[in-house]
Amino acid sequence: MIRLEGVGLHYVQGTSPGPEVLRDLTTVIPEGGFRWLLGPSGAGKSSLLRLLHLAVLPTRGRLSLLDVGVGDATRHDLALLRRRIGMVFQDFRLLPHLAAFDNVALPLRLAGRPEGQIRADVTEMLRWVGLGGKLEARPAQLSGGEQQRVAIARAVVGRPHVLLADEPTGNLDEVQAERLMMLLKEMNRLGTTVIIATHNDALVARHPGQSLRLEHGRLVEHG
Amino acid sequence: MAGWSSMARPRDDLGLGRALGERMLPLVVAAMAFLAALALAGSVGAAALSKRWQEGAASVLTVQVPKATAPAVDTPAVPRLERVLAILRGTPGIASARPLEEAELTELLRPWLGSGAGRLALPLPAVIEVHLSGAGPDLAGLGTRLEAAAPGSTPESHGVWVRRLSALARSLEACAWVALGLVAAIAAAVIAAATLAGLAVRRDAIEIVHGLGATDGTIAARFAARATRQTAAGAGLGALAALPVLLFLADLAAPFAPAGQALPPGMDPGLAWLAALPIALWLGLPALPAAAALIGYATTQMTVRRWLRQLP
Ligand SMILES: Nc1ncnc2c1ncn2[C@@H]1O[C@H](COP(=O)(O)OP(=O)(O)OP(=O)(O)O)[C@@H](O)[C@H]1O
Ligand SMILES: [Mg+2]
Q1: Which of A86, A206, A219, B60 has its CA 20 to 30 A from that of B113?
Q2: What is the pTM of this model?
Q3: ipTM of the assembly?
């Protein structure tokens, strides 16, 4: 379960606090829930996902993720919590010096999985996103859409409890986007909480679901 | 966590092997280890000299007694030699007093008088060898009392000079230790700076791995393992390079502090060069890479963990 109570966030710029980009967010997303995260550009969608991925911590209010109060957790607790949250970044964030295979294997290696299992899982995952023939390719040798699929594979390969995706279809064609939605819905059906930020109204129309709508850093619609 | 790299060779997820600038680190550490080896040799050498001088002479005093068989001035019933011995043995701070035998005296005087000294009909003064204990006696008071019993018999201390020399040696030793400490501190600073540069270059990669749930310990261990290997290798190189220089210096110093140690009986004489350096150095030189590795490990761990605090 994800619970936000009066959560606010401002980025620190130099030494002075910048303007609040998220304000007074209060909502609950139950375990296994599904949410679209909608809103105009600059509304704070990526910032909210960053918060849920613990890449930034709330500067106001209380946030609890998978029943762990983020404010009380130690650094080590936060690291372990991050392993249970998969994230597809808007800009992919692949490690440029590692092959696609090793990028996808990274979360499994961090979790200490045996290498044999890693080989099987990663190969299957990359084959599923249509990159079975590009295991050894570096990110720079892949197209934007292929990089996005590597990023998706990395986010889901560890079977996270929560999956956050920031514009995951931005670089995909219709067919790939539909395949991705099938994967995410299947994971959601198996119990993963899924939150997808997108501008793609057609996609939302084809896959109706509950949504959170942000405007100027405030939640204007939830549930 | 350890399973991040479950294969034999640790994986280079952070791209640590690629930064050319950091290949300088082993060379810098090698240079510092070279300096440390010289400082170590300096401290060992100074300590050996100081010990030799102190043990050799500081605890010995000689007293010459002219006209040894003449009656003592203050107690005419006993000869002067007997009287002086009695005074010496009754003085606190003196462990023993022993008149030298004729043969020893001859041996002592041979450089001046030649081997025929014993047969000369010269009235040789008696010479008493005195071993001191603890801080030794009050020399001025002792001198007055000896003068009263046997005029002309004064205690002659080598101690003053020896004390000055060994104070010098001890100062040199202290300087060498300060130099060693400085080398270690500079090495730590250099390693910390190299680590910070490496962290800045890999900021993106570290943020990604951090976001995937790597703990501070895992990330710090990656950097520390690499720094440990590099500093150990660099210091090994430096210590090895210093070895010929130390052997050369030991050769130069040999006339002043002869025979650092005797070869154990039955030892292959082909290994005699081992005896050229004191044992302390043979132990200290291999300790340099170990110490460097420890400094490299600890400095890197601290630097990385501290740097990671800027991430949530
Ligand atoms: N690292 C940062 N430091 C300071 N301000 C930031 C930072 N990241 C984002 N912002 C600001 O926060 C606000 C929200 O940005 P955010 O990226 O969350 O929007 P978004 O809804 O994801 O937009 P888009 O749909 O274009 O991706 C913007 O005004 C942006 O300028
Ligand atoms: Mg965004």
Answers
A1: B60
A2: 0.75
A3: 0.91
